[in-house]
Design goal:
Helix content is 61%, strand content 0%. The protein is globular and about 80 Å long. 46% of the residues are buried.
């Protein structure tokens, strides 16, 4: 029996079938036999991973014919061979290393695969020793002749992630460890292979993404939402096979079962809701952000056509992948609710033809994706009242710098000198801060709490950066958000880089307190940094300020963010990357880039950022929702996504906070030592990393303590400092064209009661200890 009923799937694009399907079936079977995937002596000796019947029943040619409906016959043959290889790799790795728990053998096996994908082919490639290596060598030689160097770099990286991060899955299996939801989404993109598929789509449609925009937010979000959609759908179809039959634990249904403590059916429904949300995030990005980024980079007709082909290719893959999952014997696919694709004697009901899947869709709220309405019905300034603070899990002790009082005095003088305590001319209600507010916020204690061992001079710079970032965060919604002035906001963002020259280029005259403060901070900070470090710092500031445009766009749409997009962008809007850059700059020399770029360090950094920003969201909930009309708060995001009340949402957010701290501890105990041993770091480098880690611990403890002590979130101060609202806004009667839709939001409360699963319990984990360091880290408060 199936462990759950497949939910109603949202699929806005009809699946189409490539006419060259039969040719691809014949070709790929011959190719699989040629490289030894089926029918080789090695297979016979190793209890064959696949036999011919397995290959036929999985029908990867059908997958590729559905996901690449418009490519030529030779291209379909090549793409199909790639998918046969990647699925065989997954099953081969499972049998040879996951089942046997052979970590050492797995590392050697994966290391050799990199040699078969050189960016520039060598004169003498290595000799393949197994079907996986033979297949990869052949595919790489057939693929790269028509590609750019930039595409090869992207594809090698995604293939390396797909293969190497299988060790993360293997390690979790060995430890019987199930990832937390945030970690799972991040890692599933790497081990799941959909970013790899997105790169192959460029090859299949014959259109590479222009390099000018390849790294931009819209293109990154398209690839990430595509990946999440592919993986979450696969998790639903493969739960029975992976979790119940193979003993895998990398599956979103299982992750939500354990994290939320709910039954399998409810976890499956929630996984499908997240899948729908990610597909709708894809649509929103394609419609609202992709055209804008093309305009900003002044792309020509050929480049724009390439982008459109790529987006269409991603859409085709989503719909075709769903259709294949409904047919392949590899997956659980009986009785899919709402899809109209139930099997009847091995055939699918409805008319035949390339667009037949569209005719079989049942028109229900789930298949139509009507839940999206709840994300566009935010009513600002609703009275929500303060939330009860939970018990935060914090295993590290906080300390405060002895320079705190001097820092408070100097910091306030600096803010006053930059004009941050003055009214803004020409802006109604444009006094961002006054002297009373500055004192109540006590931003000058954030630095001392986070970096208690910093020198007075270094603490002065850190304090001023924190004040500057917080002022900019308050400045943008007042000056540009209330009037929906996106043009003015983009000009504001565009000018920011002018005040951070990498050389002796003169800067323009600052026009605002934000520009004046940045110019002063850059002149004081940059002189201490080498050129590459200046570039890193400038990019971090640009990312911080650029993320404000994302917030303004959501405000204009009354759109509560998708949960995954919120977490990823909140790291930027909080300034986490900016202070991570400061941390890296203090590490010193002798630490290899491979260590700093390792999954372990990235996991530590992201866990710290998430801990701090999620905790801050609980403290700032009333301030942001009731007094500022803001919608960028994880409590609200969870409340709307799950249809629960604020108290339940706070509890779930706190569970996320706890899980991120537990992940931090897990990485320190199990992952980081292996990275350091493999890199062979000397004592000085290890000491530098130790200071870095203890600095992160102090950052989390110090940020939590500041949130508890500041007056920035106290209701009495919020009422005293209430800002005049936008002209024409009536707090008692929210009316006007289109506002009736706001009342729809009430329909979605109580969607999930999150009934507990008695067989599932969260792990209660605690640890203690404290340490001291002078490395900046963490995230700026809201």
């Amino acid at each position: 029996m199936q462990p759950f009923q497949l939910p109603e799937f949202y699929m806005p694009y009809p699946a189409r079938l490539n006419p060259h399907l039969e040719g691809a079936r014949v070709h790929t079977k011959a190719w699989a036999r040629e490289v030894g995937i089926i029918g080789s002596p090695e297979q016979a000796q190793q209890d064959a991973i696949w036999d011919e019947e397995d290959l036929d029943s999985h029908d990867y040619a059908l997958l590729c014919a559905y996901t690449h409906p418009d490519c030529s016959a030779p291209e379909l043959d090549l793409i199909t061979d790639w998918y046969v290889w990647v699925f065989f790799f997954d099953d081969h790795f499972l049998e040879m290393y996951k089942r046997t728990r052979d970590m050492a053998g797995a590392q050697k096996y994966l290391a050799r695969l990199h040699d078969f994908m050189p960016i520039v082919p060598p004169e003498a490639p290595p000799e393949p020793t197994n079907p996986v290596e033979r297949g990869l060598a052949d595919l790489w030689a057939r693929t790269v002749p028509t590609t750019s160097i930039e595409w090869r770099v992207r594809f090698v990286e995604s293939t390396k992630n797909l293969t190497d991060e299988s060790l993360w899955e293997l390690d979790n299996i060995q430890r019987s460890r199930i990832a937390n939801p945030i970690e799972y989404i991040e890692m599933r993109r790497k081990v799941g292979g959909a970013p790899w598929s997105a790169n192959l789509i460029e090859h299949a449609v014959g259109s590479e993404v222009p390099p000018e925009i390849a790294a931009s937010r819209p293109m990154r979000v398209l690839k990430d939402t595509f990946a999440d959609g592919v993986h979450l759908r696969n998790d639903l179809f493969s739960y029975q096979r992976e979790v119940q039959s193979e003993g895998e634990n990398s599956n979103c249904v299982l992750v939500l079962e354990r994290f939320l403590g709910v039954g399998t059916q409810q976890a499956a429904n929630l996984t499908n809701d997240l899948l729908t949300s990610r597909l709708q995030q894809f649509e929103n990005t394609a419609v609202t952000e992709v055209p804008a980024v093309c305009d900003e980079h002044q792309l020509g007709p050929i480049e724009r056509a390439a982008v459109q082909n790529y987006v269409k290719g991603l859409q085709d893959w989503q719909s075709g992948g769903h259709e294949w999952h409904m047919r392949s014997s590899r997956y659980m696919n009986g009785g899919a609710a709402g899809s109209g694709l139930e099997r009847h004697g091995g055939t699918l009901p409805g008319p035949p033809g390339p667009y037949a899947s569209a005719a079989r869709i049942k028109l229900t709220p789930g298949t139509l994706g009507l839940n999206r309405l709840k994300n566009f019905t935010f009513v600002p300034f609703l009275p929500v009242g303060p939330v009860a603070l939970p018990k935060f899990y914090m295993p590290y002790a906080h300390r405060c710098s002895p320079h705190v009082e001097a820092g408070r005095r100097d910091c306030k003088k600096w803010a006053r000198r930059m004009g941050m305590l003055d009214a803004l001319p020409g802006v109604p209600g444009g006094q961002i801060w006054d002297e009373h507010q500055f004192d109540v916020f006590d931003l000058a204690s954030v630095g001392p709490f986070n970096y208690p061992d910093a020198t007075a001079a270094m603490l002065g710079i850190i304090n001023d950066w924190i004040v500057w970032g917080t002022y900019a965060d308050d400045y943008v919604p007042v000056v540009y958000g209330r009037t929906r002035d996106m043009v003015g906001a983009k000009l504001f963002v565009a000018r920011i880089s002018l005040f951070m020259p990498l050389d002796d280029t003169p800067i323009p005259v600052p026009m605002t307190p934000v520009e004046r403060g940045l110019a002063d901070l850059w002149s004081r900070t940059a002189k201490m940094l080498w050129r590459d470090a200046r570039r890193m710092l400038r990019e971090a500031v640009e990312d911080l300020v650029g993320s404000y445009l994302w917030e303004l766009a959501n405000q204009a749409q009354h759109r509560i963010p998708d949960p995954v997009d919120y977490i990823e962008m909140r790291r930027k809007t909080s300034g986490a990357d900016l202070f991570k850059t400061f941390s890296r700059l203090t590490l010193g020399v002798g630490i290899p880039a491979a260590v700093l770029q390792s999954r372990a360090i990235a996991g530590l950094d992201n866990s710290v950022a998430d801990y701090s920003i999620l905790a801050n969201d609980i403290f700032s909930y009333q301030k942001e929702i009731e007094f500022e009309g803001d919608l960028h708060n994880s409590v609200l995001v969870v409340e709307r996504f799950l249809g629960c009340d604020p108290a339940k949402a706070v509890m779930i957010v706190n569970d996320l906070i706890t899980s991120r701290m537990q992940q931090f501890e897990h990485i320190l105990a199990t992952e980081l030592p292996g990275v350091l041993d493999k890199a062979g770091l000397d004592d000085a480098a290890r000491a530098g990393l130790h200071r870095y880690v203890t600095g992160l611990q102090l950052s989390m403890a110090g940020t939590l303590q500041w949130n508890k002590t500041t007056g920035r979130f106290k209701e009495s101060e919020l009422r005293h400092n209430r800002r005049p609202r936008a002209p024409g806004y009536n707090a008692e009667r929210f009316t006007g064209f289109g506002t009736a839709a706001a009342r729809i939001a009430s329909m979605y409360r109580g969607t999930y009661e999150l009934e507990p699963n008695d067989q599932t319990a969260r792990d209660d984990h605690s640890a203690g200890g404290s340490a001291g360091a002078d490395q900046p880290g963490g995230a700026r408060p809201r």
